[in-house]
Structures are given as C-alpha cells and as structure tokens.
Request: fold
Amino acid sequence: MLVRFRLLVLTLILGFTLSNCNDGDVIVTSFDFDDSTLENCGEAGGYVFFKINSGETESISLRLATTDELFMGSEIREVVLDGSSNFVNYRIFDGSVSSAYFCNEIPPSTPGISIEYLGSAGIARLTTITGFDDDDAIPFVDSEDDLLEGTGDLDKDGIPNFYDEDDDGDNVPTVNEIGGDPENPRDTDDDGIPDYLDPDDDGDLVLTRYEANGTLDPLSHNTSETDTPNYLNSAISESVMIDEFRSHSYDFSSDITLIINNLILVNGEEQITFETFDMGNIDEILMGTITDTPAFPED
Ligand SMILES: [Ca+2]
Ligand SMILES: [Ca+2]
Ligand SMILES: [Ca+2]
Ligand SMILES: [Ca+2]
Reply:
C-alpha cells in the first residue's frame, strides 16, 4: 500500500499518465487540471466549484453548503471540509462530462462515474475582492482625503467618495456638476472648490440642497426667467430646508480565488494529498448595481 501510495503521489507530481488497476479494468487518470478553467454553479446554501480536465473525462469539484453570501465584500473565508456538507470530489468518468453535470439540480445519469475520490479533509480558502464604481467620471485616487475620489466620505452619507455618485451630498449628481470636463471641473462661484465638492454651488449662502423647493432635485427647480436653476443662480436665494439624500446607485464587480489547503482525497485505501491545491480564479463572478438611499447624518 505504501509503495502504491508513493507511486501515485510521484506520478501526480510529475504529471505523467497513471495506469490504475481496478478489478481488472484499466483506468487511465491524469489529474491534470492546470489548463482547466474554474467554473461555478449554485448560490448561498449550495455552491459548487468545479474544473473539468481537457479530455473531459475527469473533474474535481468542491461543494460548499455555507449560507454565507460568498461573492460580496473583500475578505478571505475559510470553510473546513467535513465530508458531508462541504467536500471535494475527484471523479473519473466513462464518457465526456460537461458543466451541465454539475449545474443541473438532478445530475444526469450519464456519464457514469468510474472512479471517485472523496476529499473529506482540508480547508477551502476563498478570497473575494469586490470593486465598486459610481461612474461619475472622476478617476479613483488612493487617498482618504475627503476632497479626493478615494475612501474619504465628504458628505458623511456612509458611501466613500469613489463610489458616491453625489460626492457633496447636495442632491445634484457629481456627473451633472462637472460641467463636461473632469480634468477642469466647473466652479460656478469661483471659490476654488469645484461644484461637485461644493454644497453651496452659487455661493449665495443657501445650500444647493435647500434650493429645490423641498424636493430632492435642485437641477429641476428654476423660478427665474433664465435657463439657470436656482442653485446655480446667486441672484435667487429662496431656501426650503430638506435634510435628506436622493437615492444612490453604484456598480459592483467581484473576483474570487479559491485554494484548498491540506486536501486529502480518499478512494478506499488510496490517498492523494495536497498541501495546497490551487483551484484557480473567476473574475467577475458576480456583478450588478446597488441602489440605496443613504441615511442623512445626525449632525
Ligand atoms: Ca459620501
Ligand atoms: Ca464619487
Ligand atoms: Ca455641489
Ligand atoms: Ca441660488
């Protein structure tokens, strides 16, 4: 057994094709997933990650029953493989296998499984990185400064500037305050603070937010004879207090990497062990748009 185990491991390390006798049938395994793409199915409560080898006759798959939402946030999650709810399968099939095999609720009856190893020990380590973007045309700056498009939060609405589509919280979206040129953004009152960072854009001492007749849309409120809305017209300073934010939208996109540490695959008396098995990565595994109305700060 020991010799056989060593032979198996050595063969795997060298990447050679292995002939494995099983009740008289000759089964050829390669255990080569280096050129295979990591794929996934399912959702919280029943995730499946899998790779199919280039010959489409072998697979390695990981099932995770965790109810955590794995694809949001930027963090590392570890799940201990227990063999029942969280486990790895290495399978050799008697025919061609496709992703449908893993993604159908009821697995197809073909291809059949010739050999199966169960990985009931190990730790799946999933790293998720979620990026956010407000599409406001101001480029990201890696800074905590409240006046830069980074992790600062100028209007204290809980949304960092880099994905806050209304950076100064005046209820006029940043994209409408730039004036067409992000390199040289508009500064209506010439106070040195560009409009998208200025809560009183025309410098009439009435907040832009209050120049909307009590609505959440200063852009549309104009009581003058001109085309200029009140919030950009310093000659008009009617004020109706409104301390609420308009609804905000931002895009998100998540990438994951998956490795399995201390993986032990078992088939009867045979074992395949890996200190670290790299399952690979999936970019843009989850993308979407979040729409939310941020709470107005207390003071
Ligand atoms: Ca903010
Ligand atoms: Ca922004
Ligand atoms: Ca402004
Ligand atoms: Ca005004």
The radius of gyration is 29 Å. Residues 38 and 170 are 45 Å apart (CA to CA). The first strand starts at residue 18 and ends at 22.
